[in-house]
Amino acid sequence: MAVEDSGRGFHTVGDREQARLLTDSRAQTFFRVFLAHDSTASEAATELGVDLNAVLYRIKTFLAAGLLQVVREIPRHGRAIKVYRSVHDAYFIPYELTPFATLEERLLQHLSFEIKERARLQAKRMAASGWSGQRLYRNELGETWSDSARGPDSELDWLAPERAGSIDFWTDALLSETEAMEIQKLLYQTLKSVEGRSAGGVGPAKNSAKQQVANERGGDAEPREPLKPYRLSVALLPLEE
User: Fold this and answer.
1) Does the structure show a pLDDT above 90 at 17?
2) Of 27, 25, 29, 23, which Cα lies nearest the Cα of 101?
3) 220: pLDDT confidence band, cut at 50, 70 and 90?
4) Structural domain boundaries, residue 50
């Protein structure tokens, strides 16, 4: 039987069907909308940018599995609008209950889903900007490198002011343990700095201390820019020797 984790309120899953759904990348995308959050089917469809019927199908599946519940109904002419929410606000899924033969298989399933979406977004952006070719060469440091290009002589400048905010690469690097920890800290700080933002809101001023002082004095500092969604994906892993 499933139990509650008294330490942090995580519900430990004890049902294999629930474990299957919660570790399936596509199903999890739909479930996240309702996780510790009230939402109607139409609101979920709008947030996900998918057809309403796709959401209704997932809702039916989650209800049958005991993962979703109707928390209230909004009266209207005809049938009332149902508001759904996850049965528990947080879940822990033991690996033993998942349908994956190995942990590597589970990670591969999640990464494959992410990589397909990443490739779709990058291909669309590259085609629109004309960076559809590929160069393979050895740079001035003697390292072999491959990058996207408009032509053989086009230089890719990631920091060019006319470029939109976008960077996507992977490479192997020789690092000391201290350097690896410094990079890890930097990446983690970047993650924490963008948490808690809502779509359509405005971001903090470039100098938050300056903004705070201005607010206290009733004045204006630098204007805050509107927010738009980006995909931020990073990884730092030691390679096996």
Assistant:
1) yes
2) 23
3) low
4) 3-99
Distance CA 232, CA 88 (A): 28
- Radius of gyration of the chain measured on its C-alpha atoms: 23
What tokens were used for 95?
């690996």
Q: What is the CATH number of the domain that holds 86?
A: 1.10.10.10
Q: Which of 65, 78, 85 is nearest to 24 (CA)?
A: 65
Contact call for residues 37 and 47 (beta carbons, < 8 A) = no
Q: Report, as an integer, the average pLDDT of 187-206.
A: 74
17 located within any domain: yes
The total number of structural domains that make up the chain: 2
How many other CB atoms are there within 10 angstroms of residue 97's CB atom? 17
Q: Give which of 168, 172, 146 is closest to 158, Cα–Cα.
A: 168
Q: Is residue 158 included in any domain, yes or no?
A: no
Q: Do the domain assignments include residue 237?
A: yes
- CB within 8 Å of 30: residues ≥ 6 apart: 44, 48, 54, 55, 58, 62
Among 99, 127, 153, identify where a domain stops.
99
| Boundary-marking domain end, from 35, 66, 99 | 99
- Could you tell me which of 166, 164, 134, 169 has the C-alpha nearest to residue 148? 134
CA atoms within 13 A on the CB side of 114: 11
- Which of the 8 DSSP states describes residue 79? S
